[in-house]
């Protein structure tokens, strides 16, 4: 039976299932226990599983991830929360020089099944360092898997798969979508963690996005349909590895591609997608691959974030430009 729940609740239920099914799963982070997290994603878990399984840590991100690495070396499967996206950088050294490298450093003998949960992105009117999208920084680092769900069902199942992975996973949670509800079937058989999914069929152009921008792209496709344009929406779901085969299959059908993400366009994940698809689909493309994202500037104050973030009009403008070729 499917149950309708918010994306945040789906993650909570997924974490609860993981804690219940595997005594080696631990949750760690700032205020994840008694408070249940800033967004209440871990609400009730410490009460039900105890302080030795759901651990309130000091305000020390480097220490949180470093401790998780040590626990993983001892056979545990830690799930650590970085309270906000901009707070991850004190832990950046631990993530990229230790967590990402240990498997290669040990010639495959050591595995680090650590999940780093990061609420990310804007749209909630937050202050500085609370609305950033640093996924491309981590995607550049070999040894890390980078995923981001766009809906409640994916949030539930992708978290299960991330915890079960023997490789470290950076799990970016789109905080503006925490309260969006969707159907979740907890006994379903999930698809591959890093497989993209077509969420709307189309023939004229492909919109590729992940996390918070998938819903926007669906709104763009609905608006374009009123003008007789058929847009395909592809939920990438994973940033590293990227499912280039699914992107290529869609582009070979529609012959145009617009990539949308909240992070700055400059050196963003859309740049890699554009380059790779241009290589793969050169003789299929009828327009250059276009990118829509944030600006190459610090994230602005809340009153300006609607101007900074991609919106319906900015994406539709890119669609118009691509279709004009």
TrEMBL record:
GO molecular function: magnesium ion binding; oxidoreductase activity
CDD domains: TPP_PYR_E1-PDHc-beta_like
Chain segments annotated as coiled-coil in the UniProt record: none
Keywords: Oxidoreductase, Thiamine pyrophosphate
Gene3D superfamilies, A to Z: 3.40.50.920, 3.40.50.970
Cofactor: thiamine diphosphate
Boundaries of every Transketolase-like pyrimidine-binding domain copy: 5-180
Domain of life: Bacteria
InterPro entries: THDP-binding (IPR029061), Transketo_C/PFOR_II (IPR009014), Transketolase-like_Pyr-bd (IPR005475), Transketolase_C (IPR033248)
Family annotation (Pfam families): Transket_pyr, Transketolase_C
Database matches in SMART domains: Transket_pyr
PANTHER family the UniProt entry points to: PYRUVATE DEHYDROGENASE E1 COMPONENT BETA SUBUNIT, PYRUVATE DEHYDROGENASE E1 COMPONENT SUBUNIT BETA
Protein name: Alpha-ketoacid dehydrogenase subunit beta
Natural source organism: Streptomyces chartreusis
Organismal lineage: Bacteria, Bacillati, Actinomycetota, Actinomycetes, Kitasatosporales
């Amino acid at each position: 039976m499917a149950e309708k729940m918010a994306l945040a609740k789906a993650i909570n239920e997924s974490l609860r299932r993981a804690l219940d099914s595997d005594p080696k799963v631990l949750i760690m982070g700032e205020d994840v226990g008694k408070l249940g997290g800033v967004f209440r994603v871990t609400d009730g878990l410490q009460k039900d599983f105890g302080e030795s399984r759901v651990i309130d840590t000091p305000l020390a991100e480097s220490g949180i991830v470093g401790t998780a690495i040590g626990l993983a070396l001892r056979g545990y499967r830690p799930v650590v929360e970085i309270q906000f996206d901009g707070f991850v950088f004190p832990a950046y050294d631990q993530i990229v020089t230790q967590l990402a490298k240990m498997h290669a450093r040990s010639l495959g003998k050591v595995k680090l099944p650590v999940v780093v949960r990061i609420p990310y992105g804007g749209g909630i009117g937050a202050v500085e360092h609370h609305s950033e999208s640093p996924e491309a920084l981590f995607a550049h680092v070999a040894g890390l898997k980078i995923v981001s769900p766009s809906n409640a069902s994916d949030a539930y199942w992708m978290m299960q798969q991330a915890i079960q992975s023997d490789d470290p996973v950076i799990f970016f949670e789109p905080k503006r979508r925490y309260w969006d509800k969707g159907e979740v079937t907890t006994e379903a058989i999930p698809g591959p963690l890093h497989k993209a999914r077509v969420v709307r069929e189309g023939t004229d152009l492909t919109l590729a996005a992940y996390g918070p921008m998938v819903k926007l792209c669906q709104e763009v496709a609905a608006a374009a349909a009123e003008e007789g344009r058929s847009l395909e929406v592809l939920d990438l779901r994973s940033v590293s590895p990227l499912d280039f085969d699914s992107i290529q299959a869609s582009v070979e059908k529609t012959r145009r591609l617009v990539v949308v993400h909240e992070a700055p366009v400059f050196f963003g994940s859309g740049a890699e997608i554009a380059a790779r698809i241009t290589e793969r689909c050169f003789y299929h493309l009828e327009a250059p691959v276009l990118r829509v994202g944030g600006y190459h500037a610090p994230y602005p104050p809340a009153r300006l974030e609607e101007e900074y973030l991609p919106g319906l009009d900015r994406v539709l403008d890119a669609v118009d430009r691509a279709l004009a070729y």
